[in-house]
Amino acid sequence: MLFSLLFAGLLLNHDAIPKSMLWLQAISIFHYAFESLIVNEVTYLTLIDKKPEYGLDITVPGSTILSSFGFDTAALWPDVVKLAVFGGVFIVLAYGAMHVLLVERR
Fold this sequence. Notes:
Elements: H1 2-6, H2 22-26, H3 29-42, E1 46-51, E2 56-61, H4 62-68, H5 76-101
Antiparallel strand pairs: 1-2
């Protein structure tokens, strides 16, 4: 659970993870959930910083912010599908474990 949280993207950016450990991010459920949530919320957001003393309005699109933190802005639906696959696999594993381990004795 702790490894899954560590490689979710909450504590480490994608670029900070060593290349030999990137496969751990692929099996992190929290990574897919966090990435889909953050992409849904920030992709179409536009941040404007107004500097009246300089007469500047700095506009930063949300997709730029996401890509600077290592998130894929086109990963919303692939992440949702991967989460559904994880859920289905866990349901099948739970059914199999209950079928094998919970034997009725009379």
